[in-house]
Write a structure and sequence with these properties.
CATH class of the largest domain in chain A: Alpha Beta
Helix content of chain A: 25-40%
Largest sheet of chain B: 2 strands, antiparallel
Shape of chain B: globular
CATH class of chain B: Mainly Alpha
Radius of gyration of chain A: 22 Å
CATH architecture of the largest domain in chain A: 3-Layer(aba) Sandwich
CATH topology of chain B: MetI-like fold
CATH superfamily of chain B: MetI-like
Strand order of the largest sheet of chain B: 1-2
Strand content of chain B: under 5%
Number of domains of chain A: 2
Structural class of chain A: alpha/beta
Radius of gyration of chain B: 23 Å
Number of strands of chain B: 2
Distance between the termini of chain B: 42 Å
Order of helices and strands of chain A: HEHEHEHEEHHEHHEHEHEEHEHHEE
Largest sheet of chain A: 8 strands, mixed
Oligomer: heterodimer
Number of helices of chain A: 13
Largest interface: A-B, 27 and 29 residues
Chain lengths: ~350, ~290
């Protein structure tokens, strides 16, 4: 008993020592893996500028939501907005702040077909439903005059692990194809009608490179780094849009609700790439909880303000699109609404 | 007090560790069982032969994964048996001691290669080979799936099966062999009529232990099996195994029932491995009694 007490005291002192010795405080964040490379860069730069350390653990979006609900972190991070059920579990209002925009790109390996293959949502859905089986199918040829397609079977490659990328991709297909919605639906993992499963973006990329005739969906950065061709998708406005940092950013230049809890997949922005997705940081609107100090709350708000402004300049080098002006405005409003004991922290 | 102290302490330590291990195994089983309760309640026994794995509509059945696991493991064992037997016989009987030593260590070295390395190697070398073969025989040329996964598993369990065969053959008493030679038997006859029958149960047990290892193998299999969660329709088909569906879906399984179904798969795998190992142990015990 006594020993346990001593141990506890020792542990407490050790923790205290760590905090005091560090001088500046360390903010804790956890969640989505997708923005992890970007957040590492941001927080490293922020540490060099301000001396405030941010410890971000990429444990997955689900974990990020659980951690912020359990109040064990200063901020959570997620690739999908919290559901109503999850919001209801929160003690206190949680704000969603979009930080960057990513894209799911359709990549392929077809001899003689360069980057920029044109696909309509319907054709894409039918390929992934296993209804279009050959690359020289008239419906593909018709969209791409001037390209000679080989008589090659289509090999569909999808993610075998549960992932936000799959969620966005299947959500898009469910939006554009009633048959997909009925037969497959959407989620982080689904029952695929056809195809090979690769683990992670790197697994899918590997299969795409290895199998002639393959088509699959990956994150933009992987297509760039591996110099894989990407398809131009027809958006709601009828334009064929290639995934570029501009067209991905443009996807959010549309009506975003004040709480930003929306998916911009299948956007109605005329120049927007339809398979774009925002990634969010989650914070409590009222920061005085669980014995948090005002300094801590203030440091968090300063960090968030920096993230939605200066930090955006680091996005594009890492293949994340920046959030457009209209979303920055919403973020500013949301950050200004963060309070400590009822009083706004930023003035 | 003083005299029996170290003895006593040692005994307690051994007892404690041994009991601790048993508690650990039982604990793992119970944890898995507790985690699979929601799934057990929802699907009951039909989870075992359910063919649909649909995380969206929360319909879960384990059959495709059970079939995938058993098919790849048993196929791997069948492929590995001739190689393991012959290399075991060679190392125990034919190889001069100068070669046998280094060669045995080399075979055992195979067991030390990390699983992910086997997976990568299979992906880059085995897959094109299998695809070429599939094109020759007119099967769908994925290069992935049951055949590739079985092949890489066969290579992975070979060192275990081969070493155990060698050890068992070395245990055959010299008197027996000398007697057979004395009766005018040739080397081949001695191996076939004396050594193999004498060591049979040991060798079988060794193969079963290797099978147990194949059942639980995850990383290398995940990389080459194609991860298709449907019932395989032919031996060339893409498939999925119990271990790889857990590895794939566990981290992002956000729905409670999905998570629970994955844990139940883990529980099933635990049971299957337990059964295989128990059977192997029973055979070994019978060998010792004899």
């Amino acid at each position: 008993m006594k020993k346990g007490l001593l141990m506890g005291l020792w542990g407490f002192l050790w923790l205290l020592g760590g905090v005091v010795l560090a001088g500046k405080l360390t903010l804790l964040g956890a969640g989505a893996t997708f923005p992890y490379p970007l957040y590492s860069k941001w927080f490293h730069v922020y540490y060099q500028k301000t001396g405030v350390k941010v410890n971000y653990q990429s444990i997955g979006s689900g974990g990020g939501i659980r951690q912020i609900l359990a109040r064990t972190v200063d901020f959570g991070a997620t690739d999908a907005p919290m559901s109503e059920d999850e919001m209801a579990k929160a003690r206190g209002k949680i704000l969603h702040l979009p930080m960057a925009i990513g894209a799911v790109v359709i990549s392929y390996n077809v001899p003689g077909v360069p980057s920029g293959l044109k696909l309509t949502p319907q054709v894409l859905a039918d390929i992934f439903l296993g209804k279009i089986r050959k690359w020289n199918d008239p419906r593909i040829v018709e969209l791409n005059p001037g390209i000679k397609f080989p008589k090659l079977p289509i090999v569909v490659v999808h993610r075998s692990d549960g992932s936000g990328t799959t969620f966005n991709f299947t959500y898009y297909l469910a939006q554009v194809s009633p048959e997909w919605r009925k037969r497959v639906g959407y989620g982080k993992a689904v029952r695929w009608p056809t195809g090979i499963g690769g683990k992670g973006n790197e697994g899918v990329t590997g299969y795409l490179k290895q199998f002639p005739g393959a088509i699959g969906y990956i994150e933009l950065a992987y297509a760039h780094q591996n110099k894989l061709p990407v398809a131009a998708l027809q958006n709601k406005a009828g334009k064929f849009i290639r995934p570029t940092l501009e067209s991905i950013s443009a996807a959010a230049r549309t009506n975003i609700p004040p709480d930003t809890r929306t998916l911009i997949v299948n956007t109605d922005a005329p120049d927007g790439y339809p398979l774009s997705a925002m990634t969010w940081i989650l914070v409590y609107q009222e920061q005085a909880y669980g014995g948090r100090s005002f300094e801590r709350a203030r440091a968090l708000v300063d960090l968030l303000w920096w993230c939605v402004h200066e930090a955006q300049n680091y996005n594009e080098a890492l293949f994340y699109a920046r959030i457009p002006e209209n979303v920055v405005r919403i973020n500013e409003k949301l950050i200004r609404s963060i309070t400590y004991q009822g009083k706004p922290i930023l003035r | 007090m003083r005299t029996r102290d170290p003895d006593q302490v040692f005994r307690f330590v051994c007892w404690g560790l041994a009991v601790g291990l048993v508690v650990l195994v039982v604990g793992i089983g119970l944890t898995l069982l507790a985690g699979s309760l929601p799934s057990l309640k929802t699907f009951g026994i039909r989870f075992l032969w359910g063919r649909v794995w649909d995380p969206v509509n929360e319909e879960f059945g384990a059959l495709p994964f059970v079939v995938g696991t058993l098919a790849t493991s048993i196929l791997a064992l069948l492929i590995t048996i001739p190689f393991a037997l012959s290399s075991g016989i060679f190392l125990a009987e034919y190889a001069p001691p100068k070669i046998a030593g280094p060669l045995s260590s080399l075979v055992e070295l195979l067991a030390g290669i990390p699983s992910v390395i086997y997976g990568l190697w299979a992906l880059f070398y085995l897959v094109p080979l299998v695809r070429w073969f599939e094109m020759k025989v007119g099967a769908p040329p994925f290069g992935l799936g049951l055949p590739t996964a079985s092949l890489v598993l066969a290579i992975m369990i070979l060192p275990y099966a081969a070493s155990i065969t060698r050890e068992v053959l070395k245990m055959v008493p010299h008197e027996l062999k000398e007697a057979a030679y004395g009766l005018g038997a040739t080397k081949w006859e001695v191996i076939r009529r004396v050594c193999l029958p004498y060591g049979l149960s040991g060798i079988v047990a060794g193969f079963l232990l290797s099978l147990g290892r194949a059942l639980g193998e995850t990383m290398a299999v995940t990389m080459v099996i194609g991860n298709r969660s449907e019932m395989p329709q032919s031996p060339w088909d893409l498939a999925n195994t119990m271990a790889s569906v857990i590895a794939n879906e566990f981290t992002e399984a956000s729905k409670d029932l999905h998570l629970s179904a994955l844990i139940e798969i883990g529980f099933l795998l635990f049971l299957i491995t337990l059964i295989v190992n128990t059977v192997a142990r029973i055979i070994i015990v019978r060998l010792e009694v004899r």
